[in-house]
Design goal:
Blueprint: H1 15-32, H2 37-56, H3 66-78, H4 83-102, H5 129-136, H6 144-159, H7 163-166, E1 174-175, E2 180-184, E3 190-194, H8 197-214, H9 233-246, H10 255-268, H11 273-280, H12 285-288, H13 290-306
Antiparallel strand pairs: 1-2, 2-3
Helix pairs in contact: 1-2, 2-4, 6-8, 6-10, 10-13
């Protein structure tokens, strides 16, 4: 994938778009919506690229029409920008125009009824259930490190947490009796995610037999390194790669693959999309809908493999 051209720092960002509309919308996202810093930075980059394109086309926010928006996204695709990146840019631009209309700065939203770019070419990778079982069985549960890793893998697959959320889980955020964990997701939004008896049993064993040997500083985080500090994303990623190799999993794997597997397997077994959205912590259900594409793609492969007239 080719990246969008870099914004020229010497090119002055002038005009109503840069001086008025963009600043008030970014302030709204930060203050009112509580958007996370990284997400806010991504939105700002996408919206600045759009602003420079408007300048090049000699267009302004007040007179832009739907056809101009379409041409902008056609230019992104022609430049080799991925469908996922184009979808992210569309979300940012659509949000801007909806805000301006809601605040009565504009009368018409030119992005209304625009469809999201197709994301079939960038479907998230997920593991087969048998591969998940092999991965979860890989850690040596006779050692404190192995018990910790097994508990992390079980909780990750049981809840679909992001790795950034998993490593920040504190002991007091896990309610074992009720079987759920509280986590703070993107945009500083708290959500409650359930987990099953299997994950509960492994975590209890880790707390009783593994964690006491790792806890050197009375740290409140659930998962600790040998040095008694919270586990890092990099360390956990390296461990997953090693366990995947031991489990003879040939698919490229990362911590996020287990999150994708969690969502895909839930939907394949009949879970409704809205529930999966809540558990994943997606602000927009359109983000969750990509997993229905995964299920359809897998269904298509199965049909072609087994139907006599496929």
């Amino acid at each position: 994938m080719r990246k969008p051209r870099a914004i020229d720092p010497d090119k002055r960002e002038t005009g109503p778009y840069f001086l008025t509309w963009l600043p008030i919308y970014l302030d709204y996202l930060s203050v009112e919506k509580g958007l996370a810093r990284n997400s806010l930075a991504s939105y700002a980059i996408d919206l600045r690229h759009f602003g420079h394109w408007l300048n090049e086309q000699r267009l302004d926010v007040e007179t832009i029409e739907r056809i101009h928006i379409v041409k902008y996204f056609q230019s992104l695709r022609a430049a080799g920008i991925s469908a996922r990146s184009v979808a992210r840019a569309l979300a940012a631009i659509r949000g801007l125009f909806r805000f301006l209309v809601a605040e009565r700065h504009l009368k018409v939203d030119p992005t209304e009824n625009l469809e999201n770019p197709k994301l079939w070419s960038t479907l998230p990778k997920s593991l087969q259930p048998s591969e998940v079982e092999a991965l979860l069985a890989a850690p040596d549960r006779t050692t404190p490190d192995g018990l910790r890793d097994a508990a992390m893998l079980e909780l990750l697959y049981a809840t679909g947490l992001r790795v950034s959320e998993l490593i920040k889980v504190r002991i007091d955020e896990v309610v074992f009796d009720a079987g759920f964990v509280r986590t703070m997701g993107k945009g500083s939004k708290e959500r409650i995610v359930p987990f099953g008896d299997t994950a509960k049993a492994v975590m209890v064993e880790y707390l009783e037999k593994g964690r006491p040997e790792l806890d050197k500083y009375a740290d409140p985080h659930l998962f600790l390194s040998r040095r008694g500090r919270p586990m890092t994303r990099q360390s956990f990623w390296m461990k997953i790669v090693r366990y995947a190799r031991e489990a003879d999993i040939r698919t490229h794997i990362s911590p996020h693959v287990l999150r994708h597997s969690f969502a895909t397997h839930l939907l394949e077994n009949g879970a409704d999309l809205r529930s999966v959205q809540m558990m994943l912590g997606h602000a927009d259900i359109s983000t969750t809908q990509i997993y229905t594409h995964v299920s359809r793609a897998r269904l298509q492969r199965m049909y072609e493999s087994f139907h006599p007239r496929a």
